[in-house]
Amino acid sequence: MNRSLLILLGALALGAALFGGAYAMSRRVCERCMASSVSDLDWLQKEFHLNAGEMARIQKLHEGYLPKCAEMCAKIAAKKTEVEAAMAGATNASPAARQKLAELAALRAQCQAQMLQHFTEVSQTMPPEEGRRYLAEMQRLTLGQHEQTESSMSDSMGHEHHQP
Amino acid sequence: MNRKNPNPDPDDARLGALLRAARVAPALPPRFQEGVWRRIEDAQAPVKSVGGIAWLDALAALVLRPRFALATAVVLMVAGALLGVREGSQIVKQDAQARYLATVAPHSLR
Of A25, A46, A108, which is closest to B84 when you measure between CB atoms? Predict the structure, then answer.
């Protein structure tokens, strides 16, 4: 094999190793340093540039919201168990199972409304521009997923209808 | 030291003359002189590398220069480190966002 080619291949391998090593090491160090001090609300403070006063108000709202959220989650979990029990062994949806599904949906809707109310309250403690951005981001992250699923499903249904 | 014989043998002289007369001087091939000059010119010309090997050799020579090698190594390490920091901070940010979302919006609602 040509000597020059060997030298170049060796240099290339060494360069790749140096780049990859520096990348992996700095990434790991960065993750460790930054993740060590992260609390649940740190992301809010950094992402929406909040000062200590705003953070204190949000912390209070957050702590007030968490028990309500946990309570709703427990109710939803219990209702899910009831739905599963009502549907167990059934070959079609019985009126009782339908009733349970409707109750589960109502609970979810209630929980979502409560969550959106919390997002709105949090957004109002922020500077107006950041508050708008926060609310839009939260709606995208929480409700947007449903919209994507529904949109993809309606698209696929549309395609099915167009099939000969 | 070799010393010439001042009185050469007349028989030897005659033998020498006979040998010289008997030596066959073959005719030179056509364009012999031109061929000789061409060979001389080719021998004196610098050696040229074939095709793409030239740039490969030049690149290898460049890579082996200590200053170039050091500078390249530093640039690669700095670039790798910067990219790593950028990726790392992005991952930490995403984790923090996911942690916040997990507290305020349980998965069953998303």
Answer: A25
Residue B28 lies in a domain: no
Contacting residues for B57 by C-beta, under 8 A, at least 6 apart: A4, B49
Size of interface A-B (CB pairs under 8 A): 130
Angstrom distance (rounded) from CA B91 to CA A29: 12
Q: Give the whole-angstrom CA distance, residue A130 versus residue A30.
A: 27
Give the domain range for residue B101: 65-110
Query: How big is the CA angle at A150 (ends B108 and A66), to the nearest 5 degrees?
Result: 25
Nearest to A40 among B82, B99, B110 (CB): B99
Tens of pLDDT, residues A39-70: 778 888 888 999 999 999 999 999 999 999 88
Is B73 within the bounds of a domain?
Answer: yes
To test the contact with chain B by mutation, choose from A2, A14, A34, A114 the residue with the greatest count of B C-beta atoms within 10 A, namely: A34
Contacts of A66 in chain B (CB under 8 A): 103
Residue B30 lies in a domain: no
Number of domains in chain B: 1
**Contact residues, chain B, for A27 at CB < 8 Å:** 84-85, 87-88, 91
pLDDT tens string B19-51: 888 877 778 888 888 899 999 988 887 666 556
